[in-house]
Structures are given as structure tokens and as C-alpha cells.
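INTERNAL AUDIT FORM
Audit reference: QA-55
Scope: verify that the stored structure record matches its stored sequence.
Auditor: D.O.
Record contents follow.
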Amino acid sequence: MSSDYQMRRRRVLQAFGVTGAATLAAMYTADPVLGATLGYDEKIGVDPATYTAPTGLAQDSPGKTTALTWLRDNAGEVTGLSDKVWSHAELSLREWNSALDSAELLRRNGFTIEWGAGGFPAAFVATYGSGKPVLGFNAEYDALPGLSQKTGVSTHDPVVYNYDAYGPTYGAGHGDAHNTLGAGSIGAAIAVSKAMQQNGLSATLKVFGASGEEQLVGKPYSAKAGLYEGLDGYLDWHPFTATRADWGTTSALMSATFTFLGAAGHGATPLGNKSGLDGALLMATMSEFLREKNVAPSGRFHYAIINGGGAPNVTPDMCSIWFFVREGSPARAQVLYDKIVECAKAAAQASQTKLIHKFHSGTWNSLGNKVAAEVLNDDMVKIGPPAFTAADQDLAKALQRSLGKPDIGMPTTLVPLTAPDPTFLGGPSVDTADVSWRTPKVTALIATFPAGIPNHNWAVTATAATNIGHQAALSAAKYLAATAVDLITQPELLQRMQQEFTERTRDANWKSMIPDGVQPPMYEPPADFLAKTGQKFPPPGITWPVPEVVAQEHLGTTGPALPPQV
């Protein structure tokens, strides 16, 4: 092992708060999930400093030629779907039109559609073919609140601006470019189906139209319900600032709201009022004091106040604060989450409010697969990077300047495949993570917005329906389709992926982080959506309407009772 690698080994121990006398092996034994993710590569002798990606895994074949030719000749089908979903800009768990358009393109190309996958009305499973292998494709289509932005415009200019004299807001927008994600994956699955049809290939393709990814809800509940059982592999990609294959991990996450119930009153005569907003603010403040001594560098928590009151002269009798808690494994996330819960209890006591604590979702950290990344990377090298025009580069540079970043434009090359750094310092979470513990997962990241621009920014929305987003979706479709054909025509590659999956998960038994009996967040679909999809609401096991949360607290004391005035 190189000295550089040894230095990073020491840093990972420090990052996870492990004493110098301990070893990585001891840490991985104590937390088998870390052993399956961060520890596996070290176990098999992978040194990030010396790793070189193998070649010769991706093979030319008639089936692959058919798939790539279909994507070339039908690019407008893929980009057209992407643009439709972008224009809908529907929030998590309410992606009614986006789901309909996505399923319709698959239906027109021979896939059968089953609605209500995992218990979510806007989710579906589209199936083509029969027999082995069974390959899944991930399709997402939800937008984010407040990220509305005109397409191709390099300064912040929302499509939807909601005027309010005291607090204007923006509409929803695809600030994570999920419009491209769903379209690219659907394009890949259709292309593979054409390859199967024209070349006599046997396989079962399943496209999982997933609802609620941005809230980390859809797939964790679906995985718990067994939706992904029986897959031999699962192909996924995500919009990013660069183009590369990946087998790294992500953060495990827990999501919950804490609602504080008090008693309303006039803001000018606050004595005796009980403020739900006070409870939420006290909780937020106490949680901030955890950061220095109670949160490892791999840990994260962040929050949003949902309903903090409508006017300063009304003491709000209800306020909710929504927390995301992230760490390197489910066990570590639970430890940090428990500390956050204690802050909530103390805040309720201090504000004299009633606490309603509701767990919403939890997802594991991602399980990478080295063989899968190597096969995908070889296909990506053979196909080449996304092709961006001079106009694309001009837009990218203008967006970078608008946000104070170096104007270097879009990347024109692939990032070489590298081994994950063992120094995991936390970061984003994905709800495909739970699926990665049920079946081997293929993961690509594709340049969909300019370097230096973070996900969940209006500038991502600005590129997601331009040629930049189109090229990303088409490139993703080509990469995933080519790799899927390789897995069908070269079964030994799939066997190697599955063997690695078995070895990684041997000591880490996946169990959903969602407690039994927890009802997922849910919204009632419009009647016309239910009619078009043949569904009834509510789904089985869902209590509807959801019981109301209403403040019924007594006003507080204002001091000793005074004698009545006569």
C-alpha cells in the first residue's frame, strides 16, 4: 500500500472519531455497513493511488449497435419527454403529469405498466420481455420547491414568481435535473428492448418510475415492501457537473418533522401565550450546539421551518421544523438522530409546548460495486463524453459568472475511473441506496450543469431543458443501454457483479430504517389521474384522511390572580 493511502487510512479513523489505537478493521467489524462500503476495497487490496481501470470488458455486438442506433434515430423521443417533465415541475409525491408522460412513452414502445408501485400513486413499474437476467432501470421525475427558473437564461429569473407583499416565493423547478434522469433511463430501457427484439436476446427489463426521491421517501418504502426483490442488477445515473462511472458510497439519512403545539394570542400582549415557533427555534438553536463536539466530520443535519406563523402580531400555536440527519451508516445516523430528538424534547419543555414527533423516512448509504463501475466505465470510454456546442459553453460560462464561479464551461472529457477515497467526509444521500443493498447497482454521473454549480440551485433548472440537459440525458441513455446489453450478452460479467455483491453484504444484513407501522407521506391524486391509471385512493394500508394535528393547549399563567375590578 502506498504512503498516500496509509495517510488517508489515518484520516478516515479521525473523521469517524476513532482513537489512534484503533484500526480500520476494528471499526469495520463494529459497523459491518462501513465494512461493506469503505472497508471492502481495502480488503481486496485496492489502492486509490495506484488503481487503473481495466479495459476490454465492453464488447461490440449487434445488440449494442441496435440500441445505440435507436437512440440516435429517436433522440427527440428522449429529449421531448425530458422537456415535458421539466415544464410540469411537479413536487415530490405529486408528479401526476410527469408520471403519466413517462409511462406513456414506455407503453407506446411495448412495455406493460403497473401503477401504484410500492404503494405510491405516482409510481409505476414498466416491464418488457421475460426470463433472465432481470434488469431494473431507475426513473425519477420530481422537482424541488423554490427553484423555478427560465430555461437557458443565465441570470436568476423564475418562471413562477408568487407575489406577496411580505414574503414573495418562487415556484418549483428541476434544480436537480430529474427531468433528464427519468428520460435518460427510460430511453436506455427502450433502446435495450429494441436490441432484444431485433437480435433475439432474452431478458426481463423493469423500469421503476419512482415517486418522491427528493424527499428520500419512495424507494425506501418500496424496498421495505419488496418491490426490488428478484432483480439481477439495477442501472442508475444522476445529473452532475462531470461525467464518470462511480462505485463510491453516500450518506445514510433519516427524515422527521417535529411539531410544537402551543396556544395562540396577540403578539403585543405575549404573556401567557405559548408559541410553537419558540419551540422550533429553541430546537434549532440547541441542535446547533451539537455541531462542535457531538457530530463527526462525516455527519450532517439541516432543517427547514415549515409553518412559522403568518403575521408577527399572532403568536403561532403550531410550528413544524423538518430535519434531515445524515451519517456514514445507518447505525451512525441513528446515534446522531437520537441527539436531535433529545433537543426537540428539551425545546418543548422550555417553550411549554406539546411535541409531536413524526418519522418520515430513512435510507441507507449506497453500496458500490467495483465490477459494475468497471463495465460501465469501459462502455463510457468507447462511446465518449457528451458533446456540448459553443452555445452550450457560452451559457455554462454565463451561469458560472452569475454565481461567482470560474467561467470554465462544461467539461469536454470523461473523468477516468478511480477507486473511492477511504476518507469519507459525508455528503448527499440518495434513496436508490436501499436498492443497492438488494441487488448490484450500476451508477453513472453525467455532466448536466456547469462545474462549480451545486445541485439544488436555480442554475441547474436553467440548463435542464436546454441542449446541455438533452446531451446529458442522451449520453446517460447510451451508457446505460450499452452496459445493459453487455450484461445480457456477457453473463459472466453479471455473475462477477453478483459475486462481489454477495461478498460485500455477507456481514451486513439490510433491514429497512423505517419502523413498522409508519405511514409514508402521501397526497391524494386528482380524480382524472386516478381514472387514467385505474387506481383507487387511498392505497391499501394507508389511513385517509390523515388524522389532524390541532393545538389544544391551555394558555400559560400570567401570574397571581388579581381581585376583580368593581
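Auditor finding: record pair retrieved intact. The radius of gyration is 25 Å.
Action required: none
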